[in-house]
Amino acid sequence: MSARAAVFDVDGTLADTNHLHTVCWWEALRQAGHRVPMVSVLGAIGLGSSDLLEHLLGQDRDRDEDASLSAAHKTLYATWFERIAPVEGAAELLRRLHADGWPVVLATSAGGSELAALRAAIDADDAITETASADDVKEGKPSAEPVRHALELVGAQPQGSVFVGDSVWDMQAARRAGVVPLGVLSGGVSRAELEKAGAAEVYADTAELLRELDGSAFGRN
Asked: Is the pTM of this model over 0.90?
């Protein structure tokens, strides 16, 4: 059991995948006759499938289409599995925190073969204590539930815990869960948007956070 935990989003934070997801969702939507600007799709990345479709297509969309759109996205995205690249410094940061005594927990909407591909790309399983996937919770980010579940997995408390993510949804979820939200710019969201969503600190990527670790929220907790 630990009083604190280091919780990490995966897509866009530890793995350089947000633009891949954007293209795959854009193509899945295009094939179904929906013309959605890529910039709008990018802004929705980080939400679970149902929430993403509601964000892009609205509440009055044909919900019967959700399953086929999600399946098309998964099929398109799977073609990239072997080419997924980690964000610079991701594995080194996780190993440093693990060595410093932080339980490291992944909180991601990915599951199954997609999560396996992400973990293989990051290549730091020796530093990851637990993983909280979308399959484990009823609501995805920006709900606090994924972050709270991640803390529960290692018996950690919100106070003293830190969440690192790249989206406004990550920052909102972390704030609602009562943990310190740190933002990274590697997912394509601006510093201003992350700060507006509640980020206590913002870094270019995990490599910069690692270099500045002692002066960050991790160093103060």
From this structure: yes
What tokens does 85 get? 């690249």
Task: Please give the CATH number for the structural domain made up of 6-16+85-220.
Answer: 3.40.50.1000
List every span in the chain annotated with CATH 1.10.150.
Answer: 18-79
Report which residue type is found at 221.
N
Per-10-residue mean pLDDT, the chain, length 221: 88 98 98 97 94 96 96 98 98 98 95 94 98 83 94 96 97 97 97 98 98 97 81
Q: Which long-range contacts (CB under 8 A, 24 or more apart) does 157-160 make?
A: 157/3, 157/4, 159/3, 159/4, 160/3, 160/4, 160/221
CA distances from 86 to 42, 48, 154 (A): 19, 21, 25
Domain 18-79 has what CATH class? mainly alpha
Rounded CA-CA distance 130/3 in Å is 15
| Identity of the amino acid at 139 | E
CA distance 156 to 35: 43
CA distance 27 to 123: 29
Residue 71: Cβ within 10 Å count: 12
Positions of CATH 3.40.50.1000 in the chain: 6-16+85-220
